[in-house]
Amino acid sequence: MDLKFGSAQAAPGSKAWGQIRVREAGMQARIPTVVINGMKSGEHVLFLANQHGGEVNGIESIRRFVEDVDPKKLRGSVFAVPSANPKAAMLANEYYPEDATPEESERYRGGAYRPPDYDRNVCPWNMNRVWPGRKGGNLVERVVYEIWNRGVMAPHRRASLLVDIHCHQSDSAVYCTYRQDIDVAVASGVPTAIYTRAGSSDLHYSRKACRDAGIQSLTFELGRQGRFRPLSVEEGRRGLMNLIKFWGMYPGKLDLPKKVLILDPWRNDIEQKEYARPSCETFTAKKAGLVYLCKGSFEKVKKGDLLYYTIDPATGRVVEEGRSSMTGVMYTPVRSLALVKKGERVCAVSYCRSVSPAEYVKRLNVEDYRNLKPGQVRD
Predict the structure, then answer these.
(1) What's the Rg (C-alpha) of the chain?
(2) 6-15, pLDDT tens digit by residue?
(3) Phi, psi at residue 129, to the nearest 5°?
(4) Is residue 379, in this structure, part of any structural domain at all?
(5) Coil, helix or strand for 80?
(6) Which of 129, 158, 280, 319 is 20 to 30 A from 244 via CA?
(7) What residue numbers bound the domain in which 203 lies?
(8) What pTM, to 2 d.p., does this model score?
(9) Are residues 240 and 363 in the same domain?
(10) From CA 178, how far away is CA 314, in angstroms rounded?
(11) Helices 230-246 and 57-68, interaxial angle, to 10°?
């Protein structure tokens, strides 16, 4: 059976590129789509990237993944959206301001401008806060609606997995809400998995829409924003390939690293207090200055280690230093600027354990993850 996603149409054993043309509220957008139609029946999955314009590594990860997959060896189907928000991408901004004039939009270019009192969680154009989208709203809501209803709830079969690729300033990681997410994240081979627990909130993330529909989802956060980083692109591509193999859709062994780090920085905040324990130490600047970080992303930290020190440029002297009171790894330490203001977050140290993904995956049964019921989680 031929499969279609927007204008992309592929016969069994082939793949095709196309677009979805979306119109809403007097505006329009063209969203790139890909169909990879396997020769044999199997699971359906959807991969998308670039909901936020400055997060570009996933675009190239998906493009290379599509180039690598042989549809004649594939069971089932893969739909992909390399850039869910091309307009924001061309501004290098988190979102595209739909009510702005062309002249006003220039203020957003490069992602430097934010309106007064900007809150990304209530911004009406933040694409990853409006899932599963709707008709009759903003253009961004309609784009999500079309991706959800044409790609995730596809006419030929509902997806059993959605991978939403974002980027953050630290090295590549998978953000996980539930234990089942950790398991699938380890199978992806992305080097770090982080319990964020944020997906269990009422915010309309893609992963919340998937949970409500009984669809397994993962959020890749590839390393660095605003530019392509070859290492991050490859980690994303390899992660997608590993997942279709783990999902039983593609032949071959998983390409896994020797170890995967599992961080649980919010264990002290969980509702089940009997399981709570100090698992994260956060450092905020006591004095303004220029911060020198002594540890890198997810680098091992021992109790007493020097994490950073702050230099006063007016004197050239160290005015503050931060040492860890726990053993773990450096968490979110990458900064775009050395400058730090008093009271600003500098870094954190998180509880961490290291696992062998090859051994970890051996005990997993893929059926536990691709046959969920609406609202079901395995924690």
Answers:
(1) 21
(2) 999 999 999 9
(3) -130, 10
(4) no
(5) strand
(6) 129
(7) 3-265+355-370
(8) 0.94
(9) yes
(10) 47
(11) 50
Residue 227 shares a structural domain with residue 334: no
Q: What is the CATH number of the domain that holds 197?
A: 3.40.630.10
Give the H/E segment covering residue 305.
Answer: none
Side chain identity at residue 295, one-letter code:
K
Distance CA 210, CA 47 (A): 13
Q: Clarify whether residues 66 and 130 are in a common domain.
A: yes
3-state secondary structure of 5: strand
Contact in structure between 133 and 148 (CB atoms under 8 Å) = yes
Cβ–Cβ contacts within 10 Å for residue 273, how many? Answer: 9
Give the tens place of pLDDT for each residue, 105-162: 999 999 888 888 899 999 999 999 999 999 999 999 999 999 999 999 999 999 999 9
CA nearest 265: which of 207, 196, 357, 212? Answer: 196
Tell me how far apart the alpha carbons of residues 183 and 365 are, in angstroms, rounded to a whole number. 10
What CA dihedral angle connects 79, 56, 83 and 134, to 10 degrees? 100
HSE (side-chain half, CA atoms, 13 Å) at 196 = 20
Q: Give the per-residue pLDDT at 44.
A: 98
Cα–Cα distances (Å) from 296 to 94, 169, 193, 225, 286, in that order, read 25, 11, 17, 17, 21
342 CB contacts (<8 Å, ≥6 apart)? 285, 286, 287, 288
Query: Within 10 Å of residue 365's Cβ, how many Cβ atoms?
Result: 8
CA distance 75 to 71: 8
Q: For residues 98 and 18, state if they share a domain.
A: yes
Please check whether residues 200 and 299 belong to one and the same domain: no
Q: Of 136, 135, 152, 16, which is closest to residue 84 (Cα–Cα)?
A: 152
Q: Residue 303 corresponds to which tokens in the numbers above? A: 């109790």
Which pair of structure tokens corresponds to residue 44? 């359906």
How far apart CA 78 and CA 74 sit, in angstroms, is 9
Percent of the chain past pLDDT 90, that is, above it, reads 83
Q: Which amino acid is at 98?
A: E
pLDDT for 271 beyond 80: no
Dmax of the chain from CA atoms? 72
| CB contact at 8 A, 255 and 190 | no
- The answer to the question of residue 55 being in a domain is yes
CB 292 within 8 A of CB 312: no
